[in-house]
Protein 1
Amino acid sequence: MISIIVPTYNEESNIEQCLQSLSKQTIPRSEYEIIVVDGNSKDRTREIAEQYADMVFIQTSKKVGGARNDGAIASHGDIIATTDADCIIPPDWIARIMAGFSDPAVVQLYGLVEPIEPGIRHKISLALANTFSRLGYYTHTLYYTLGCNTAFRREAFFEAGMYRTIDAGDDLEIARRMREIGRVKLDGKLRVSFSMRRYVQFGTLKSLYEWLYITIKGGDDEKYQYSKREYK
């Protein structure tokens, strides 16, 4: 069994395409569960999610990391995978994750991203991000994992202490702790389609600056609010 955790907040315009893609995987639906952990949305997010997910409930822990933790605690899988509500998942995603954990030394597996929205600017932005991720991995200096495309061996995830409930940088931080337990592996062919809406609405440079600023400050800062953004 593999458990897929999807945090949500006011995602009625995106959640259906995400869950539809998760429901159309190359492995039988009985071999994985979909868990939607909602931040008390004010729209139809939970109503839509209930048509596809095995569990839908309101989170009790703080922020996106807390939602992922709540989902993991409620899950039944030996492998816990996470993605985001505004992503579209390729049909072989779960199968690739399962294959990646055939090596017993692997405790965390992560992949790369490509843009949902058209345009060369978005492709260049994510190509640079993917290059940064590869450089960090192969030089063993930085494991740039993303919550939209990562998976954990269950026992190791709980042993490491799960996600920190911070605004930004939680993906980097948990990878550091997972490395103390076992191997953190990048699979360059493990990809999801990622929405660029944050960068479209708030600007690429501004969004990256805010993420970097909060991460350097330890994950939280009163100056910027990274969680529960309202999108047009």
Protein 2
Amino acid sequence: MPPALVETATHSGGVGCVDTVPEEVPVALSYNGISHAVMLASPADLEEFGLGFSLSEGILAHAAELYDLELELGERGVVVQMRIAEERLAALKHRRRALAGRTGCGLCGVESLEQVARVLAPLPAEPAIAAASLQKALVHLQQNQPLHASTGGVHAAAWADPAGNLLAVREDVGRHNALDKLIGALARERRDPRTGFALVTSRASFEMVQKAAGVGIPMLAAVSAPTGYAIRLARECGLTLAGFVRDRRYTLYAHPERIIE
């Protein structure tokens, strides 16, 4: 597997130095031998990326529908070979696409407006989350981003319990990828995503909300702004959406009743 960090010679003001930068590689996602998508991602936690993408995109309804996963390393990138249940493969063939995705490509590969928004099950009203838990999770996340600390060039997605204790953190050059890796980690560790909340170091886009709500995460907190489309979707499906989560402040855009001041 290629390293997630690389060192490169640089020049600044006529002075040579060595800089550490994040790596990104093409990652192909293949189901039962059928190529589905190619994304650019950090070459780490790719097993979790494959599983998380499959769940967040609705390709799989449950992790148990993924029968096998193998990584094939090549000169041009990595292929995540997944074997899934035949009924899930049949459903995938109806929406099959082969695309080359940009980092955090959003809706690339969607062929019609009808494919943009999926039908999401309403999220439960629980759990209640203390406002102080947001700040606690933020502080801990800032202390648990080794790739970002080394490069300053990657996003992170974290999952915390209602008390703000971080239970999983994943990083990637793409914000969507980081969230998919987190979702895959929760599934592999058999953690119930309905019992905590996600915190991301990016803006909260429509697709980020859709991915979180699609797997049952009841709250998405972002250090940057949400989009209008993301807010509307969050209000429709019952997801609590917080933006501008910074030192001692945040803004609630959807379902504030889940937050206890």
